[in-house]
Design a protein that fits this description.
Blueprint (H helix, E strand, L loop, with lengths): L2 H60 L9 E4 L3 E4 L12 H10 L14 H9 L24 H8 L1
Antiparallel strand pairs: 1-2
């Protein structure tokens, strides 16, 4: 294959990639437009739902005596409303402040350390012929590489 033929192949590859990118961008835009339109269409219902839930929740909590036995009130075959007892839980509003406090006070039980593979150390061991399950050493070597500059698709349109 000549350099000219390779250049032609690369330009064909760029054209196909540009077509894929263009169609993918259009697809993502359509999805985003549909999501926005859907949210706009149901916004009134979402607002009403939130207001009704708040009003019914206020009624329930203002009248706990009505939800003793049973703890919920059935409404035909539609469903029920009532009181449940949620367990206590912690809500973290400032993760950085929380972690800083735990570290400053030596409270190691308040956080978890995430384990991530150290590829540099793994490479040393693998190069020393030590087998590591789940890891392989990919030796250095030449590989084919393709890269496209920003705005390459517009350049193709002016060439072709």
């Amino acid at each position: 294959m000549s350099v000219s033929e390779a250049d032609d192949l690369f330009l064909r590859l760029a054209a196909v990639k540009a077509a894929i990118d263009k169609k993918s961008a259009a697809h993502k835009k359509r999805i985003a437009d549909l999501e926005a339109a859907h949210k706009e269409q149901i916004q009134a219902e979402l607002d009403e739902k939130e207001a009704l839930e708040k009003e019914l929740g206020s009624y329930i909590l203002a009248n706990p005596g009505r939800f003793v036995k049973p703890r919920n009130h059935q409404v035909g075959s539609v469903g029920s409303y009532g009181i449940t007892t949620d367990p206590a839980y912690v809500q973290i509003s400032d993760k950085e402040a929380f972690i800083r406090f735990a570290l400053e006070n030596g409270y190691e039980d308040l956080y978890r350390t995430e384990h991530t593979p150290d590829k540099v150390s793994a490479m040393r061991r693998l190069m020393d012929k030590e087998p590591i399950p789940g890891a392989i050493l990919v030796p250095a070597g030449d590989v084919a590489k393709f890269s496209f500059k920003k705005g390459y698709a517009e350049q193709l349109e002016s060439v072709g």
